[in-house]
Amino acid sequence: MNSGLHDTSVRLIVDLGNTRAKLAVYEGGRIVLLETADNPVPEQLKALLPEQYNPEGGIISSVAGDPTPYMKALGSFRWINLDNDTPLPFTNHYLTPETLGRDRIAAVAGARHLFPGSDLLVIDMGTAITFDFINGQGEYKGGAISPGLTTRFRALHNFTKRLPLLNPVEINYLTGRTTDESILSGVINGIRAEIDGIIEDYRLLYPELKIILTGGDMFYFEKKLKNNIFATPNLVITGLKQILDYNLEK
């Protein structure tokens, strides 16, 4: 294994979500390529990987079904297919590991890499908002799952007869003067208050807690939360790289 400034190893990271895929190439410890695609078939994902890169290993995380066709299309090097049996660079105390989302696993691994030895709360803001806690000893304890931003807008529209379906926008008010403004205030300010409240509850237990915010909707909240946070959009990619390294080095 090469290491340090002379590390030239090439590794491929693939995150297959429900509607979007991310493909990243690391050369040494540095990202040299990061691409996204909406609902790609294997050949489309393969087209995002330039021929100049020859990965020594890769990891794929899929919440969208069997990733085997994507692995075959991308190359025949050593693959890690992230699942509940994959060895992890932390201790997993989750009571039902078979139900634990791969994105949650990867986000925790990424946070642990960024802040080793710290008590960490990872907040991932996507279709669902997930809260994941790992202590300074590297023991992952679990967390919480809550409806995400778009999910709340859809729920208000789908389960009422007259409320419109809105898209998220940035707001700077508390009191809505129209129905649209009231929905936006209720959803966005409600999520902000929820996150701040959960952070405060954790900090009562872990005073030195560090907060890491990630996910597609983080940009609506990273400047509005009253707690000090570290925001990073590619935490899952970072974590998948750490899990891959951990398994290739075993």
3D architecture notes:
It is globular, with a radius of gyration of 19 Å. With 250 residues, it is of the alpha/beta class. A hairpin with a 2-residue loop joins strand 2 (20-27) and strand 3. It is built from six helices and eleven strands.
Secondary structure layout plus pairing:
Blueprint: E1 10-16, E2 20-27, E3 30-38, H1 42-47, E4 57-62, H2 68-74, E5 78-81, E6 91-92, H3 102-114, E7 120-125, E8 128-134, E9 139-147, H4 149-158, H5 179-205, E10 210-214, E11 230-231, H6 235-248
Parallel strand pairs: 1-4, 4-5, 6-9, 7-10, 10-11
Antiparallel strand pairs: 1-2, 2-3, 7-8, 8-9
Helix pairs in contact: 3-6, 4-5
Low-confidence regions: 1-5
Structural class by SSE content: alpha/beta
What string, H for helix and E for strand, traces the elements in order? EEEHEHEEHEEEHHEEH
Mean of all residue-level pLDDT scores: 93
Q: Largest sheet at a glance? A: 6 strands, mixed
Strand line-up of the largest beta sheet = 6-9-8-7-10-11
Task: Estimate percent helicity.
Answer: 25-40%
What is the helix tally? 6
How large, in whole angstroms, is the Cα Rg? 19 Å
N→C terminal distance: 11 Å
The number of strands is: 11
Give the percentage of residues in beta strands. Answer: 25-35%
Gross morphology is globular
